[in-house]
Design a protein that fits this description.
Length: 763
């Protein structure tokens, strides 16, 4: 679905105008580019079929324009070209991409597509139409439902999700024509789900572009700064590469290899992410580029052996760093990625990462699973780990009633995780996400083993369920028939499968407990000849301080609430005034829930303010009042890249654009997002926290507080300093006017002798 589409504009009939023929030329040129790209591929020539799909889509979308003003058909053509050139897919996928919006946006039905193009294309177009509302709806339940549809459709035909990712990539490339609030929503959604999905499917170049484009719209200033620094350092990087490559070229040519060697520069988003995570400046990122060697296998020589031959040749020249060898050749990643990674000390005293791949491995690395089809005739195994992953997803979808946002977070957790390989006692290998525990491993074997797990032996040593596993561990699971999943297990399992299985059992146990408690309550009422009516049950629930009847029943079953002979007194109101207290408490809760639009008896509903999303919302401060609320999670201040979220009260809550909570809000409640700008603040002050690290020496603290208080006239609200083994770390909470204050302060503090780093953090 094209998110950059405007309302339908129909071009009037009559004679062909010059503008229309220019449009026709643009459309024809676009289609010719697509055909040329297809004819260069290894797929069977089915030009007639693709032309038929193009003509049908062109006629169906005739007269409709995108927001940018170009004919709408240019979007399906562009998506089809991505599917063909960047994913390596064939005529079925190209036709489906050309037709992907026809059913949703025109009068044609899936049956029409089936009649003209057959079952397979109709099935893919139908799958794309089902998830066309975007993965995320405005409500959490719709969001989870769309996500379920997406993943279930994936298991029918992986091409549905590949075309959906291509559709999103083109929308991101043309996002400039959208309003800023819409840009934040689409960029946030892309980073939250589409980029991890592309990563999981092995589409690394597309994943990188999606991340960079999202970053460009969310943090334009930082994007520009890092891009300029990359440009400025390009020449020195090229010199380093040439110096490094010269002896390697000599050696590889002597081996008779056909290969190419090139430097791959880290993406802008990856660099920024590392700067944020490590709290270091651009200049301290040492692995900005890596060297990639792609070879054509010699006849009759195994690809794996050739990778190791090249490895051997390089380590004859340069000193290797042993802890940085990654062998993805012998054991490919779950998304099909194969390569041999090593890090060596270059001739200029810098560590250089080298990635060694065959041409086939490189294709799969760039185009993911789609590239497997290109090598079908070469007997490449198609039955990959992806099928197992899809099976896990399907099992999670079948577990009843997952909370929408928790469900998405759990899935995302597994989408973007790096993997470890763990052995069973018999030597079978299981792939798990980094950080997986012994209990995750138990659930990976079978849900019954997980449910009955009491501990594990890792490398023959007894460990608790929460023990984190490492690659190469051999794990033996210990079980007991009397064991049942415990609520605290959810605190340390990491895999989506384990979480869903534990939650399902806990929910089932809770229902059984509630039934047992309900029977006791009904018996207590029968003993005093009282009817088990809704009002009597609600009265008892409120009297004992519970807002939900199920909680009350569970407490009774566990013996936390004792129902004595005074049940009649409680219901008839002849006891102390505790009932009144609980009723008042319940009423207070009901009043609070009027955020969702309920009225209390004596209160007129307040009219919520209306916001114009086409204009930036100006964040003002007049006297002691503000027209916004600062989010506690990230505490933005004037000058920060920010956005507004309209909460249930109609108030604007301001978050940093990079805040993880804001990421979820953009993905889940895109229609409530506002583009915000700060007005000029001269008197108002905002809280910010600095983290300071340095060498412990006499007088450092005194000099720091002097700079803050005297040079900048800034109030310190909290100061925590801890020194250990000759170094210190500290957090300083301050009241500042804007980001510029913070930047100047950081520069001044970092000039103090013995202070090694000063960074702003979210407290």
């Amino acid at each position: 679905m094209d998110n950059t589409k405007d309302t339908t504009t129909v071009v009037s009939g009559g004679e062909t105008s010059p503008a229309l023929s220019a449009e026709e030329k643009m459309i024809q040129d676009g289609f010719n580019d697509l055909l040329n790209a297809y004819l260069k591929s290894n797929h069977r020539r089915k030009v007639e079929r693709i032309t038929k799909a193009f003509n049908f889509a062109n006629q169906a979308h005739a007269g409709v324009k995108r927001r940018s003003g170009e004919p709408y058909i240019m979007h399906p053509i562009a998506v089809a070209k991505i599917v063909c050139s960047e994913m390596g897919l064939g005529s079925t996928s190209i036709c489906s991409a050309l037709l992907h919006d026809v059913v949703e946006d025109t009068e044609y039905t899936v049956e029409d597509i089936r009649d003209m193009f057959g079952d397979k294309i109709a099935q893919i177009v139908d799958g794309l139409t089902k998830i066309s509302g975007g993965i995320f709806g405005e409500q959490a339940s719709a969001q989870a439902e769309n996500f379920r549809k997406l993943l279930l459709t994936m298991s029918d035909d992986i091409r549905v999700i590949l075309i959906k990712i291509a559709d999103r990539l083109h929308n991101m490339r043309t996002l400039g024509s959208m309003l800023p609030a819409k840009q934040f929503k689409i960029a946030g959604e892309t980073l939250y789900l589409y980029a991890p999905l592309a990563h999981r499917l092995g589409l690394f170049s597309i994943k990188t572009e999606l991340e960079d484009l999202s970053f460009k719209y969310e943090h334009p200033r930082e994007y520009e700064e890092i891009s300029k620094k990359l440009e400025a350092t390009a020449e020195s990087r090229n010199r380093l590469f040439e110096h490094f490559a010269a002896p390697v070229h000599e050696k590889l040519k002597a081996m008779g290899l056909h290969y190419e060697m090139r430097a791959r520069v880290k993406s802008v988003y990856s660099i920024w992410n590392k700067m944020e995570t490590k709290k270091v400046p651009f200049e301290d990122i040492y692995d900005i580029y890596a060297v990639r060697i792609i070879f054509d296998p010699l006849p009759g020589v195994d690809e794996k052996n050739q990778c190791w031959d090249i490895y051997s040749a390089i380590t004859d020249i340069y000193r290797i760093r042993p802890d940085r060898i990654r062998d993805w050749v012998s054991r490919p990643k779950a998304n099909g990625y194969q390569a041999l990674h090593l890090t060596v000390m270059g001739p200029d005293g810098q560590w250089v990462e080298i990635q060694i791949r065959s041409r086939r491995m490189d294709d799969i690395a760039e185009k993911g699973f789609a590239a497997h089809w290109k090598y079908k005739e070469k007997n490449v195994e198609e039955d990959t780990e992806l099928d197992k992953w899809l099976q896990t997803i399907t099992e999670i979808l079948e577990s009843p009633d997952p909370n929408a946002l928790d469900f998405l977070d759990t899935i995302k957790l597994n989408l973007f995780s790096s993997e470890i390989f763990v052995f069973t006692p018999k030597g079978d290998i299981k792939t798990l996400p980094q950080g997986a525990t012994a209990l995750d491993f138990a659930y990976a074997l079978h849900s019954d083993i997980g449910n009955k797990c009491i501990g594990a032996k890792v490398n023959h040593r007894l460990v608790p369920l929460s023990h984190k596993l490492a690659s190469g561990d051999q794990v033996e699971v210990l079980t007991s028939r009397s064991q049942l999943p415990q609520p605290e297990w959810l605190n340390f399992v990491t895999t989506a499968r384990a979480k869903s299985k534990i939650t399902a059992v806990l929910r089932r146990v809770r229902k059984d407990t509630a039934k047992e408690g309900e029977a006791k309550v009904l018996e207590a009422l029968a003993n005093v000849n009282l009817e088990a009516s809704q009002s009597n049950l609600d009265t008892l629930t409120m009297y004992f301080g519970f807002s939900r009847r199920e909680d009350f029943y569970c407490a009774v079953a566990k013996g936390e609430v004792i129902l004595s002979d005074n049940v009649r007194k409680i219901i008839k109101g002849k006891t102390d005034n505790r009932l009144f207290k609980y009723v008042k408490q319940a009423l207070r809760m009901a009043t609070k829930s009027s955020e969702a639009g309920e009225k209390t008896a004596n209160e007129e509903p307040k009219e919520k303010p209306q916001y114009d999303k086409k204009k930036p919302y100006v964040l003002k401060e007049e006297g002691l009042s503000r027209n916004y609320i600062i989010a506690d999670c990230c505490k933005p201040i004037p000058g920060d890249d920010s956005l507004g979220f309209i909460n249930d009260d109609g108030n604007v809550v301001v978050h940093k654009r990079s805040c993880p909570i804001a990421m979820r809000l953009k993905s889940s409640f895109g229609e409530r997002i506002l583009n915000t700008v700060w007005s000029n603040y001269t008197n108002a002050s905002f809280e910010a926290t600095l983290e300071v690290k340095g060498i412990d020496a006499l007088g450092v603290l005194n000099r720091m507080t002097k700079v803050i208080a005297e040079e900048f006239n800034v109030a310190i609200t909290r100061l925590l300093i801890e020194a250990k083994d000759g170094v210190f770390e500290g957090k300083i909470k301050l009241k500042v006017h804007d980001v510029e204050d913070i930047q100047k302060l950081c520069v001044s503090l970092s000039k103090i002798e013995n202070i090694k780093s000063v960074t702003r953090i979210s407290d």
